[in-house]
Design brief:
The chain is α/β, with parallel strands linked by helices. The chain contains ten helices and twelve strands. The chain folds into three domains: 80 residues, Arc Repressor Mutant, subunit A (Orthogonal Bundle); 78 residues, D-Maltodextrin-Binding Protein, domain 2 (3-Layer(aba) Sandwich), CATH 3.40.190.10; 93 residues, D-Maltodextrin-Binding Protein, domain 2, CATH 3.40.190.10. InterPro entries: LTTR (IPR050176), LysR_HTH_N (IPR000847), LysR_subst-bd (IPR005119), WH-like_DNA-bd_sf (IPR036388), WH_DNA-bd_sf (IPR036390).
């Protein structure tokens, strides 16, 4: 019986070439590095040639490896095109995300989720963490990126620093204010609200809640008009007309977590968590 080539092993080989090594290929494929190495070894055993050589931590494709890489790439393209033609992508994965993630995290998150789950439609639902958690628990969402809790440990996995922000007038004022500190806060059941109040109170400062809002858009509008200071995750560039404030007490960080519903397969849940972790690491580096 003639030898046959395995699609999975060829996908690993092409990933090694595209990523420049076994470690990065394993992360992209959501496999262990040992599994990727076994795949390449199986190809070499089938073809009876050496495809890749290791030079310390670097890898180099042999002449036979370069030649076979061309065939493998074409085979995978034809294989994936056939699947696209015959498989109906009707399954939708619905991911919840906090309002804070819209501008900074979501473009990269959607891009990487679509790459990691190519056979599924990715749909997003934005909202507050408490509501997203409840929707996951009710199996109304497949997964959600949420603010889990406050933390004082910046090295904790998923930890993101927070920062005080304000409109231009308050951002350039004396800090801390001699009068009571005006705060713009999310309404109840919000970690950022608790973090802001507890930080100000622990420093012995008095405060007034000058505005409340159930959503990020309302918070930003109140801050822009200098109604008060608020606490936001430090993720990338601040929105227009909102400025970082120094001089107020050091706030805690927040821990972001990915929560998945019970009906989601272990493979998909792991893929979603890995993608979210990679995106958070990219924007928190």
């Amino acid at each position: 019986m003639p030898e046959t080539l395995d699609i999975v092993t060829m996908r690993s080989l092409v990933a090694v070439a595209q990523c420049g090594g076994f470690h990065k290929a394993a992360r992209v494929l959501h496999l262990t590095q040992a599994a990727v190495s076994r795949h390449v070894q199986r190809l070499e055993d089938t073809l009876k040639v050496q495809l890749v050589t290791r030079e310390g931590r670097a890898i180099r494709f042999t002449q036979d490896g370069e030649r076979f890489l061309t065939h493998a790439t074409r085979i995978l393209e034809a294989h994936d095109a056939a699947l696209d033609d015959f498989i109906d992508r009707t399954q939708t994965v619905t991911i919840g995300a906090m309002d804070h993630a819209v501008d900074i995290l979501l473009p990269a998150l959607v891009h990487q989720l679509r790459a990691a789950l190519p056979r599924k439609n990715i749909q997003l639902r934005l909202g507050r963490s408490a509501r997203l958690r409840d929707a996951v628990n009710r199996n109304q969402l497949d997964a959600a990126l949420v603010l889990e809790r406050l933390t004082s440990d910046p090295t904790e996995i998923g930890a993101i620093p927070t920062q005080w922000v304000a409109g231009r007038e308050l951002a350039t004022a004396e800090h801390p204010p001699r009068r009571r500190v005006p705060l713009v806060l999310f309404d109840h059941d919000c970690g950022l609200r608790r973090g802001a109040i507890d930080t100000i109170a622990a420093a012995g400062l008095r405060y007034d809640i000058s505005a409340e809002s159930p959503d990020l858009a309302g918070i930003q509008a109140a801050v822009r008009t200098n109604l008060g200071y608020t606490l936001l995750p430090a993720l990338g560039r601040l929105p227009d007309s909102i400025y970082a404030v120094s001089g107020l007490p050091e706030p805690p960080g927040v821990v972001m977590r990915t929560q998945t519903a019970t009906h989601v397969t272990d493979t998909d849940a792991r893929t979603i968590r890995d993608v979210v972790q990679d995106v958070l690491a990219l924007h928190h580096a």
